[in-house]
Amino acid sequence: MQNKIQAVIFDMDGTILNTLDDLTGSLNYALAQTGHRHDFVAAEVKHFFGSGVRVAISRALAEEGRPDVPEDDPEVERIRKVFAPHYAEHCNDHTGPYAGIPECIAALRDRGILTAVVSNKPDFAVQTLAKEIFPGCFDLAVGEQTGVRRKPAPDMTVKAMKDLKVSKANAVYVGDSEVDLATARNSELPCIAVSWGFRSVEFLKAQGASVIVDRADEIVDWVDAQNA
Asked: Which parts form a coiled-coil structure per UniProt (predicted)?
């Protein structure tokens, strides 16, 4: 009998990888080079990211008294152009998988489940980190690309499912933020939220999360239950 769940699509930052230290370092570097406040700590930066680099920069600028800076503001783009090459060089300095994630992915693949990453991170970083930290572990890895709407729009996940040749009835999305919950809803996918990421459990519940796991092996347990 064919499995009900044939593909698990993961977010990256805060879900499979703790990227906070490298994001914080590159963001502060870019802000310093462009004359802005640049003393943010990881506990602050984790609330900036989730909707892409431009939004993160806009949120950082808001903290220095510039609220409502649009992501297409020229200053945001100026900062992004400094951030991008620095992060490209340093995106894997201090980044690593959360506990149990490599084993979780291996267990899913042992069951014949397709695994993928769909992230609002710049695509160059998604490709680098997927290859360096998870070699051979994903059937597909997709980051932010020109011409494709970012999450929470469903475009990236819909394209991923098309490339994986699975339907929305046979996939699940795993993430750690309100963006991921909205992405799953907009893509008509069930969502597994993780408690170890960039948002608190209380926040995730307030955003409508109905399945929240505390350990990576619980993702495998959920898939097994669906496929029983």
From this structure: none
What digits encode the pLDDT tens for the residues 167-214? 999 999 999 999 999 999 999 999 999 999 999 999 999 999 999 999
Q: Which residues of 22-55 are buried (b: 16+ CB within 10 A; e: fewer)?
A: bbbbbbbbbbeebebeeebeeeebbebbbbbbbb
Against a cut of 0.85, is the pTM above it?
A: yes
- Residues 109, 222 share a domain: yes
39 with 45: CB under 8 angstroms? no
CATH, residue 165:
3.40.50.1000
- Cis ω for the linkage preceding 152 (within 30 of 0): yes
- Contact present, 70 and 58 (Cβ < 8 Å): yes
By DSSP bridging, strand 96-97 and strand 17-18 are antiparallel
Q: Which residue has the tokens 């475009």?
A: 155
Q: Are residues 192 and 120 in the same domain?
A: yes
DSSP result, 17-31: EE-HHHHHHHHHHHH
Residue 63 DSSP label: T
Q: Does residue 2 belong to any structural domain of this protein?
A: no
